[in-house]
Design a protein that fits this description.
The structure holds two protein chains of two kinds. Chain A is an alpha+beta fold. Helix content of chain A is about 65%, strand content about 10%. Chain A has helices at about 1-30, 35-60, 70-75, 80-85, 90-115, 120-145, 165-195, 200-230, 245-270, 270-295, 310-330, 350-380, 390-410, 420-445, 450-480, 490-515, 615-635, 635-645, 650-655, 660-665, and strands spanning about 515-520, 525-530, 530-545, 545-560, 560-565, 570-575, 580, 585, 590-600, 605-615. In chain A, a hairpin with a 3-residue loop joins β3 and β4 (about 545-560). The longest helix of chain A has about 30 residues, at about 200-230. The radius of gyration of chain A is 27 Å and the shape is flat. Chain A starts with a helix and ends with a helix. By secondary structure, chain B is of the alpha/beta class. Chain B has four helices and seven strands; from the N terminus they run αβββαβαβββα. In chain B, β4 (about 95-105), α3 (about 105-115) and β5 form a beta-alpha-beta unit. In chain B, α2 (about 80-95) crosses α4. Classes of the chains: A alpha+beta, B alpha/beta. At the A-B interface, α10, α11, α12 and β9 of A face α1 of B.
């Protein structure tokens, strides 16, 4: 019964989305106010029925209703309540449901907050969002219906991949989806503006908070995923350049570029056509990510289902959406070339232009590395995989110039800066940085750091200092009663840039100064590495609620004193789940010690991996700081004004382009 | 810039996307690549386990010597192993030598299972804790390895073997291995 209600609700949600699309786009196109009046209620209806349908699926999971195939396959009464709720999105069908729920949520948010926007524009945005939703509803209903019954019902449930049974992983996919799908809002705003043939500062101001919100979620999602893979996959490492990681990283890079270029579009009215292209590219890459994960075209640990029919469907979806959006772009973008302020070479616009070029180049490098193996295979040139060395050698050098720019950009004026003004603002940071460099040289001169460490630490501290000094400088000027403002936007930017510096330090130090060794040991033996002594005390069987395994005990000594006792484990999940290596990690501050248990080698010996990871926590800390910075910027007064005070925005009342004025008259 | 060239610039991303779509399309219709087990082509990992029916005797790696052998990992609690069972019996009838590996199981239900459904195995090794199987990279049950007469792993199948795979892949492979690696 519940399953049928869920299915009907899903179908109804599809019809809601379809009417939202039709009345939104056709209403805006023909200027019929009555049609346009239906769009917003349809969006709420879509959210309601989607939430109902999703709730039904969750209920089936919680009550372990094994007469539904999807539940029988992925739910298990042995799983705790928490994981049964989260198990809904543990596999393909449910994760599509989550995807659509998130899209419906974003659509609902847009419907709520677009009341102050021009009617025609708001309708176009909702119409485009509805069209995206329609595609995914059709996909789910046709190829991956989660409510299919299983007759006769299964006696006991299957299992989630045990590796996925983790509290962090419960929030990782929703966060990532909020980010992925959130980019659809920027996409819809861009397409709607292109259709209207008008893209102005107000448009950029409306788009910015949405893009920023999606970017925050995407950032948090990526950080969580990286942290999870560090402590759960068992062999250390927090980024593997795995195709699916790349699939989330590419939209992130583009979204980062978009945030910056939107700033130019808002403040200076320049880069508009480029901004629109970025918005389209960002969401298209999200769709591409979905395609890569769902189709099994690229093999990765994240791949859910290898079903070519599903892959084909998403590919068609991706093709139709990005091709249509780009066609609109080709048709309309030339209209946007006219206006836009000019700017000198030495200006913030130029630096943001370089920022965009570098970020897009970075995304392109990741893209090529991800897609290239597929091309090689398709054209019958053999089989190869592009590994971390490629990405390290191609992606990282692209980022270094960005780290220089990040320090200078915020100090430079819009339109035309002068070297003199730049120097007047920058000299404190530059001086401090030189001092730090000197200090580091003195302290670490004989520590035999490899060149990469030096490079990373120097660049990292440059970013850190410049980001840190700017708000302080402004505060100081305000203290001296000079007319300088410190809005949340600037504060947020500084915090996010500071986060970038923290990440650079974390990545550099942990990858260049970290050590790891594989070592076979017997209980009773000890191993010494990086100033710590690891004593293998004992090993024995262990069991948990749904697993059996082995558990070792290690005592770690530092300078002769007991530092910690840790228990790395190896777990085999039953009934027929896989094996996980649960590494023991201690530290969490400036350095992590990491022991993971491998296989028995005979004669009582076990293969073991020891890792010493200095400052690795900075990587995620920096990511979270970036997200926090985004949040702070999102709280900027300017956006609230843009939402609240309609009459002050001249865009909708007067100065409409001729074609838009025609549309609005019935 | 002239109006015409503006349109041309706009077309560039469209062309790029079209190219990408074509390539992805080709990638989909292409056979999805299968990650082979890293063990394939390598000597079989160590295996020293008591036998299921005769706890005092042992199964060692020597069982693979001079024969082409299937090593089938199964358990009496494993539902999909029952689906596979008829295929295993079919392979046995066609002269394939199968060694069983009873995984995380108890002796009594395991023996009852073989009595009930028939015994396709020449010998059955008994891995109570599932520890010895770690070396084989066993992910779950059922799982099947083809081991050549020199003790090298030649093939691995994860999950219950479908009848067509047994007929078209495994049986011909066993016959070919007998010829290729025939022992003097």
């Amino acid at each position: 019964m519940i399953a049928e209600i869920g299915l009907y609700a899903l179908i109804l949600a599809f019809f809601m989305a379809a009417s939202q699309t039709f009345f939104g786009l056709a209403g805006a196109g023909t200027g019929r106010l009555r049609w346009m009046a239906i769009t917003r209620p349809a969006a709420f209806g879509q959210l309601f029925f989607m939430a109902l349908s999703y709730g039904c699926l969750t209920d089936l999971f919680v009550t372990s209703n094994y007469s539904v195939r999807y539940v029988a396959k992925y739910s298990n009464a042995l799983m705790p309540f928490f994981y049964r709720v989260a198990g809904v999105w543990g596999a393909h069908e449910g994760s599509m449901m989550l995807w659509m729920l998130v899209l419906a949520l974003w659509t609902g948010m847009v419907a709520v907050f677009s009341r102050k926007l021009p009617v025609v524009f708001a309708n176009r945005v909702l119409g485009v969002l509805g069209a995206i939703a329609c595609g995914f509803f059709l996909f789910t209903l046709i190829t991956s219906n989660p409510f299919v019954r299983l007759l006769p019902p299964a006696l006991h449930g299957g299992t989630l991949n045990p590796i996925l049974e983790d509290p962090l992983l419960v929030i990782h996919p929703p966060m990532l989806y909020m980010g992925y799908v959130g980019l659809s809002v920027a996409f819809a705003f861009a397409v709607a503006a292109l259709i209207g043939g008008r893209m102005d500062a107000a448009w950029a101001r409306w788009t910015r908070p949405w893009t920023l919100a999606a970017w925050i979620f995407l950032t948090v999602g990526i950080v969580l995923g990286s942290f999870w893979s560090y402590y759960e996959l068992g062999w250390g490492g927090w980024w593997f350049w795995d195709p699916v990681e790349n699939a989330s990283f590419m939209p992130w890079l583009i979204a980062t570029a978009l945030i910056h270029s939107l700033a130019v579009s808002e403040k200076r009215g320049a880069f508009k056509s480029w901004t629109a292209l970025l918005a389209i590219a960002g969401f298209s890459l999200s769709l591409l990510g979905t395609f890569l994960v769902r189709s099994g075209v690229l093999i990765s640990i994240h791949a859910f289902a290898m079903d070519p029919r599903r892959g084909m469907f998403i590919l068609v979806l991706l093709g139709v959406m990005s091709a249509l959006a780009l066609a609109v772009y080709v048709w309309r973008a030339p209209l946007l070339w006219e206006d836009g302020g000019g700017f000198r070479f030495l200006s913030r616009e130029t630096l943001i232009l370089f920022n965009n070029i570098l970020l897009v180049a970075g995304a392109a490098a990741v893209f090529i590395g991800t897609i290239y193996p597929l091309f090689i295979e398709v054209f019958g040139l053999g089989r190869l995989s592009v590994g971390p060395p490629y990405f390290d050698h191609v992606f990282i050098p692209i980022m270094f110039p960005l780290f220089i720019l990040i320090g200078i950009g915020p100090y430079l004026s819009w339109k035309s800066g002068s070297l003199r003004a730049l120097f007047r603002r920058l000299w404190i940071s530059a001086l401090l940085w030189l001092l730090v460099c000197l200090l580091l040289l003195l302290l670490a001169f004989d520590s035999h750091w490899p060149p990469m460490t030096w490079l990373g630490v120097l660049f990292g501290s440059w970013v850190l200092l410049t980001a840190f000094v700017e708000p302080i400088r402004r505060l100081w000027l305000r203290f001296r009663r000079e007319p300088v403002r410190l809005p949340n936007g600037v504060l947020g930017m500084s915090l996010a840039h500071f986060g970038v510096g923290v990440i650079i330090l974390g990545i550099t130090v942990s990858t260049t100064l970290g050590v790891w060794r594989d070592m076979p040991l017997k209980p009773g033996q000890s191993y010494r590495m990086a100033g710590f002594r690891y004593r293998f005390d004992a090993i024995g069987p262990a069991r948990g609620r749904n697993w059996t395994g082995v558990r070792a005990t290690f005592s770690i000594f530092h300078q002769g004193r007991l530092f910690a006792v840790v228990h790395p484990e190896k777990r085999h999940f039953f009934p027929d789940g896989g094996t996980t290596t649960n590494a023991a990690i201690v530290g969490g501050g400036l350095h992590d010690l990491f022991v993971s248990l491998g296989n028995p080698l005979g004669q009582g010996k076990w293969s073991l991996r020891f890792r010493y990871e200095p400052m690795v926590i900075f990587v995620w800390l920096g990511g979270l700081l970036m997200a926090l910075g985004g949040l702070l910027a999102l709280a900027d007064r300017r956006y609230r004004i843009a939402l609240e005070v309609r009459p002050y925005l001249p865009i909708e009342d007067s100065s409409n382009s001729p074609d838009q004025a025609e549309e609005e008259s019935p | 810039m002239k109006k015409k060239s503006r349109y041309l610039i706009g077309v560039i991303p469209l062309v790029l996307v079209a190219g990408l779509l074509v390539a992805l399309w080709a990638g989909l219709s292409h056979q999805p690549s299968i990650i082979p087990s890293p063990l394939i082509g390598r000597p079989a990992p160590p295996l020293t386990l008591p036998r299921l029916a005769h706890p005092d005797r042992q199964v060692t790696r020597l069982v693979f010597k001079n024969h082409v052998t299937l090593l089938n990992v199964w358990a009496s609690w494993c539902v999909s192993c029952q689906y596979e069972h008829s295929t295993l019996l079919w392979l046995q009838r066609h002269g394939v030598r199968i060694i069983g590996l009873d995984y995380k199981d108890h002796r009594i239900p395991a023996l009852a299972y073989l009595k009930k459904y028939g015994n396709p195995y020449v010998q059955v090794a008994y891995d109570r804790r599932g520890l010895a199987t770690i070396n084989w990279g066993v992910y779950g049950t059922p799982e099947t390895f083809v081991v050549g007469p020199h003790g090298h792993i030649r093939y691995k199948y994860v999950g219950p073997i479908p009848q067509p795979v047994a007929r078209r892949t495994i049986l011909p492979l066993v016959q070919r291995l007998r010829l290729d690696e025939s022992v003097s």
